[in-house]
Please model this.
Amino acid sequence: SLSDELSLQAWENILDRREEIARQSQTAPPFHRLVLEYLLNSGHLREPVITEYSELQRLRSNALMDPLTGLQNRRSFDERLEREMEAAVRYSQEFSLVLTDLNRFKEVNDAHGHATGDKVLALAGKLIGESARSSDLTYRIGGDEFALMFPNTPYDGAQTAAGRLRQRFSEAIQSLELKVPVSLAYGISTAPREARVASAFFSLADERLYNFKRSIGSQR
Model:
């Protein structure tokens, strides 16, 4: 980025150039063309790259998406969690977080290979995306771990949604005919009544996810 002094100088040069062209042609050129011309010729940019705004938006979007599942990634999750927590605390609105992962997923990779493992992850991502309401937010936060944010949703509402998702996954996974009985486990926390800081909020849901996985293991 340019310093304040260089920015002011650049702006003055652009205005001077605009007046010069206007005197010669009786028509003032658009500012964006003059800004582009100045930056390309000023030497301030070492390796300038010109791209369409729509392409820039696409690149930004891709940087926040997980390519396998089509869900948002961990970077996007961390940024949004902070904002949603702040809003929940400030306005005293219930906000629920569901963390999920696939119980015994590692055994799928061991028994069937990573290609089949990717199919399981893609299926989970598809079901999570389809189950979300327009106001809900869905993420793959790493490996076989996923997260769902439910703004303006109490604990019971998030629990109902998570239970429904677990059942849908249990039914859909049968089509892959796996040797390993993979299941979806989850843990839930609700702000601001259970936590008022994002790190504690996440840790509580993660602890409950771990306890859920232990209960599944004991039943198996």
